[in-house]
Structures are given as structure tokens and as C-alpha cells.
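Data deposition worksheet. Section B asks for the primary sequence of the deposited chain exactly as it was used as input, without tags or linkers unless they were present during the calculation. Section C holds the resulting structure in C-alpha cell form. Section D is free text for depositor observations; keep each observation to a single sentence. Incomplete worksheets are returned to the depositor.
Section A, Depositor: J.P.
Section B:
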Amino acid sequence: MLCQFAGEVIARGLGLPLPGPVIGLLILLAILVVRHGPDEDLRTTSTGLLRHLSLLFVPAGVGIVTQLDALERDWLPILVAILVSTALGLVVTGWLMQKLDRSG
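Section C:
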């Protein structure tokens, strides 16, 4: 959390176009490289979290399974909504990046 906080302070203080959490991750990476990896407590914690990471996908899977009848009934509007929203998101992101790039 301290690395993320430091990243936020750096990003806002210097007006960098990079998000604070990304800078915080770079700070954390630098610390881990200098220390030759995480200490045993961090290694134990991260291993435990990674071991159970798949549990985070259970609610989404259950949601899909409970709505299979709606998915079967309305598959075409759902498919169109997914494709249109994805394409629209890509177009808006590309347009915004071009606008931001021109102003920088």
C-alpha cells in the first residue's frame, strides 16, 4: 500500500500521464529486485492468494449457469450487445488516445 501511495504522490506531484498504481508497481518491482525477491512472509501470502485465485471466477460462472434459459432465449440480442459495446469501446478508446496524443 505504501508503494501505491508513493506512486500516487509522484504521479500527481509531477503531473505524469502514468497512473499512480502503475508507478507504485514499478517502485515495488524495484524494491523486490534490490532485495533479490520477496521475503518469506510475502512469498507465503502471495502463494496462498494465487493458490485460491480460481475461486474469484466462481460467482461469474454461477451467474452464467443460473441465467442459461435467458441466454438461450435472448442469445442474439446479447451477442449483438457484446459485439457493439466492444467495438464502440475500441473506437472511443482509439479516438481518445489520438486526441490525447495530439495535445501532448
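Section D:
Residues 1-51 form one domain.
The chain has two domains: 1-51, 57-104.
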